[in-house]
Structure formats: structure tokens, C-alpha cells
Design goal:
It is globular and about 55 Å long. The protein is of the alpha/beta class. It has two domains: 121 residues, 2-Layer Sandwich (Ribulose 1,5 Bisphosphate Carboxylase/Oxygenase); 84 residues, Ribosomal protein L1/L10, domain II (Rossmann fold, 3-Layer(aba) Sandwich), CATH 3.40.50.790. The strands form three sheets. The protein has a four-stranded antiparallel beta sheet with strand order 7-1-8-9. Strands 4-3-5 form a three-stranded parallel beta sheet, sandwiched between helices. Helix content is 33%, strand content 21%. α2 packs across α8 and α3 packs parallel to α7. The protein has nine helices and nine strands.
Length: 231
């Protein structure tokens, strides 16, 4: 059995695993336990009352966090001609068409967000098996297939977060950094939760947001009272 370090043990002891903390208290506790030598990401995990195996229970979307994510995002855009120039001017890190498709097919994926103009989707569609498992496939439902590449790139750079429910109805995302003050983290978490609530699918029955937990990259999870994270 692996030995638990003093820092990890102290962090675990500070959390009552059976308690539901109010959002502000949970944020303070998670920040206090983020004692690694780097700026840890604050993450939210949600257990939703859906079965994503059914198409009418899939939950996905995008939200612009009011205080950003605290991390730099590398954005790739599949576009040609004027739209390619527009993407570059907006701050896209990688822009291309057929040549970019070839690079991705080779496994060269040096980006965190992927955007495409509608006319590029016949080409980009070939990359489903490569980009899909990484949750990078452009999709019009989350605004990453769009003719307005300028707005899409700026939103990605400003701190928009895509979310998609996984198996067993679990959804998770980064909502800021441990260096953020507590008020900004709480604001980001409420904005994220509201976006997920608005994305409730027609097939979802009963309680939609069942459980919520917060943690830092290296810290233990803290269970949060669901009512306290909803605006």
C-alpha cells in the first residue's frame, strides 16, 4: 500500500467526507488544501441524473466563466482564405485547412480547443476518431463550428469552458486556479452550474443535479450543498 505523505494526510483530515459544505465554505477549504508548489486548478465534478447512452439525455455545452480559467488556451482553427486571416487576427495559435488535417491525422495535436468554419466540416469530419476521444471535435451545439471565427476564438481565449457528460452521468471541468480569490471562484462555479442546469436535456427525469464536489489538482474532494451553487 502506498504511503500517504504528510501534506496529503493533513488535507484529508481537514475535510469531513460526510458533510455537505456551503459553496463559500467549500471554496475556502479547497483553496486552503491547495498547497502544491504550482498553481493548482480548481475542479468541479457533478453527478447528473441522466444516462448519456441515450441521445435525449446527453448533456453538453459551453460557458464563458466571468473570471476566466486562469490558464492559457491554445486554439486551432480549420479555415481558409479570409476566415483564416480573421482567425489569426483574433489570436488563434494554429490555423490551416488540408495541411492541418494531415498534421492531426499524424497525431500532432498541439492545441486545447478546436474551431472550424462550416465549409471545413467535410474535411474535419475525417478526424472524428482522433479528436472525438479528446473532446476536441468541433460541434455547432457548443459554438465551435461557426462562420464567426473571430468571436469563437476570442471566447476560447477569454476562458470559455466546454463540458460534456461522461459515463455514469459524471461531468467535470476546471473552473479556475487556486490563486483566484474566493469570491471569483464562487462566481465561476455558479456560472458553470447555471450553464449545466440550462443544458438539462428533455429526457432527464427527476433530480437533475444530484451531487457536486470541488477539489484542487492535488487535494481531496469536498462535497458541496447543491442548493448553494445554484444562483
Amino acid at each position: 500500500m502506498a504511503k500517504v505523505g504528510k501534506r496529503t494526510a493533513a488535507a484529508r483530515e481537514a475535510v469531513d467526507r460526510k458533510k455537505l459544505y456551503a459553496l463559500e465554505e467549500a471554496v475556502a477549504l479547497v483553496k486552503g488544501n491547495a498547497s502544491a508548489k504550482f498553481d493548482e486548478t480548481i475542479e468541479i465534478a457533478m453527478n447528473l441524473g441522466v444516462d448519456p447512452r441515450h441521445a435525449d439525455q446527453m448533456v453538453r455545452g459551453v460557458v464563458a466563466l466571468p473570471n476566466g480559467t486562469g490558464r492559457s488556451v491554445r486554439v486551432a482553427v480549420f479555415a481558409r482564405d479570409a476566415k483564416a486571416d480573421e482567425a489569426k487576427a483574433a489570436g488563434a495559435d494554429i490555423v490551416g485547412a488540408e495541411e492541418l488535417v494531415e498534421e492531426v491525422q499524424k497525431g500532432n495535436i498541439d492545441f486545447d480547443r478546436c474551431i472550424a468554419t462550416p465549409d471545413m466540416m467535410p474535411l474535419v469530419g475525417r478526424l472524428g476518431k482522433v479528436l472525438g476521444p479528446r473532446n476536441l471535435m468541433p460541434n455547432p451545439k457548443v459554438g465551435t463550428v461557426t462562420p464567426d471565427v473571430k468571436a469563437a476564438v476570442e471566447a476560447a481565449k477569454a476562458g470559455s469552458v466546454e463540458f460534456r457528460v461522461e459515463k455514469a452521468g459524471i461531468l467535470h471541468a476546471g473552473v479556475g486556479k487556486a490563486s483566484f480569490d474566493e469570491a471569483k471562484l464562487a462566481e465561476n462555479i455558479k456560472a458553470f452550474t447555471d450553464a449545466v442546469a440550462k443544458a438539462k436535456p428533455s429526457g432527464a427525469k427527476g433530480t437533475f443535479i444530484k451531487r457536486v464536489a470541488l477539489s484542487s489538482t492535488m487535494g481531496p474532494g469536498v462535497h458541496v450543498d447543491v442548493a448553494s451553487v445554484q444562483s
